[in-house]
Amino acid sequence: MTTATEVVRDLRKGGTQYRHADVLSIDEPSRTLELAFSSEAAEVQTWSGVEILGHRPGEVRLHRLGDSAALLLDHNPRDQIGVVQSASIDRDQRGRAIVRFGRSPRAEEILRDVLDGIRKHVSVGYLVHQVEVIGQRDAGPLYRATDWEPIEISIVSIPADPSVGIGRALENPPQDTATVSQHTPGTPEDKTMTEPSPPAHADTTNTPQPTSNATDTPNSVDAERTRVRHIADLGKTYGHLELAHDYITQGQSPEAFQRALLTKLTDKAPMPQSEPHTQTGIGLSTQEIRHYSIVRAIRALLPNASQTDRNAAAFEIACSAAAEKTYGKQARGLLIPSDVLNRAFSTTTPTDGPGGNIIATELHASSFIEILRNKTWVMQRATVMGGLVGNVDIPRQKGTTQAYWVGEGESPEKSKPALDQIHFTPKSLAAYTDITRRLLLQSTPDAEQIVRSDLLNVMALEVDRAAIYGSGSDMQPTGVKHHSGINAVSFAQKGQPSFAELVQMETQIALNNADVNAMSYAFNAGIRGYAKTALKFPQTAASGTIWESGNTVNGYPASVSNQIKAGDVFFGNWADLIIAMWGGLDITVDPYSLSTSGGTRIVVFQDVDFNIRRTESFCYGAAA
């Protein structure tokens, strides 16, 4: 009978394994294929013997395949033509996946061949991490894969042939250690055997070997396998496979590899800090942004986070460190760079099914601010400056240039407009949202989107409130109400301004030569309800109500927000309110406030400041 050691060696020689996948359906409009890539019932001959892929709970690692894994051509990692949209194990113990073709000319060409029946074969690539020898067949030992991982799906010209063995060695097979448990008669306990292996086609004479001893105990075996996997995954994601290979063979830790990646990351997009400027990100590629997970970052921030959680978030931690260096500030927890925010908080309805917006192909530099703007009435009307670094001063003209009447040949007197500056300094906006333990355990795109949407909502509410009522003290920016120099009108009755009092607000601004045509009102739902029934001129029904069709008051647009206190009315040119936002969203966790329910409070910090270009452009009305 084949020994466990021989099975381990054969598995490792094979590297990534391949199996034929069945095409269940094709949806041309959505450019998708539905596949069945594995089955519990199938026995397939490999170099190591006869293999059964287990499909019981916990036996299949679907995270990698389900996290937007690649759809390749002929298992070539340099030839990606699409993405895996979803993967699951059904009740009939079959692995299923839905893949979507991209829109590049190459992907379009392959899709046409598939639809025309020219390319009919699909294959799945997978890694076997642990097996159990359960019997013997004529072709060799019968073993069951109790821990295996599909990693990619390919459109292939020649499918894997089970009759001659489906194991195929890559030029550089992964260095994962395989574990085999062999049951033999008279041996009640399992025998776990491992053996380190060098890269394929490599000269091992002078190759540094890993310093960790992976053969001492089962724990050390698991640790070595985890070390190799995290470094390999991070190297693949970031596009530094050669560097990852060096760190694996030298026995370096994932943390050391993370620091090396950080160096390359920060060298990629250096940014001087000597003067204020805007910055859109730290230079992440589209693939890197897709890989970023806010939920994974949150898990790593928890006080009881395991080493596995922290290793899984190595990429997010590296991005945070690079963002700190780029933006010139220290994070309280993890700093989410602007590159990620621009894509990650896109809330456009996806056309490719749930979570489709997470893998969008277009990236707009201001999309995070645009989405936040859509959730706040203030940002929809104010002037927003995003991605700032350092303190910012904006020149403002206080007076006007003089004009003179002159005679023929005379020169006008020199006139110099009065200038000053309005200042912006970062002030930390803090907001929080609570998520349940079960939601935090999820790794699906939809769960990720729920967390992101909640964070946006709490930030939007606080931006609305602070832009109006920020006190200017206790680390708060100064809101419109507390700016000295704005106009004010006293109402006779709280929450029931008369039409004449509203016109008085308009008149005060007009007398200061502000841009009246750009004005609009803002108040809460209570005043809107009053204005819908109150006549402009009491006892004269023909005058109409204060609230007009088209959501206007006296012809001016009116915004309604319950962030505005009862009885308050604001009128002004909101474009003269400037909202400054500094790069990066700082995120940390509070695991104690909801400790009895197992939930977690997520706290976010965004550096924001407000200032007004012309105070005479605003008027505040309230009962005395």
UniProtKB/TrEMBL annotation:
Give one GO molecular function term: peptidase activity
Please state every residue range assigned to the domain named Phage capsid-like C-terminal. Answer: 355-621
- Compartments in which it is found: Virion
Q: Which UniProt keywords apply?
A: Hydrolase, Protease, Viral release from host cell
- Indicate where this protein is primarily found: virion
UniProt keyword annotation of Hydrolase present = yes
- Region of interest: Disordered: 166-225
Q: Domain of life of the organism in this record?
A: Bacteria
Renumbered to this chain, the signal peptide range is none
Q: Does the keyword Plastid apply?
A: no
Pfam families in the record: Peptidase_S78 (PF04586), Phage_capsid (PF05065)
Could you tell me where the Polar residues compositional bias lies?
174-185, 203-220
A GO biological process of this protein is: proteolysis
Q: Where is the Prohead serine protease domain?
A: 69-163
Q: What is this protein called?
A: Phage major capsid protein
Please report the organism this UniProt entry assigns to the protein: Xylella fastidiosa subsp. multiplex
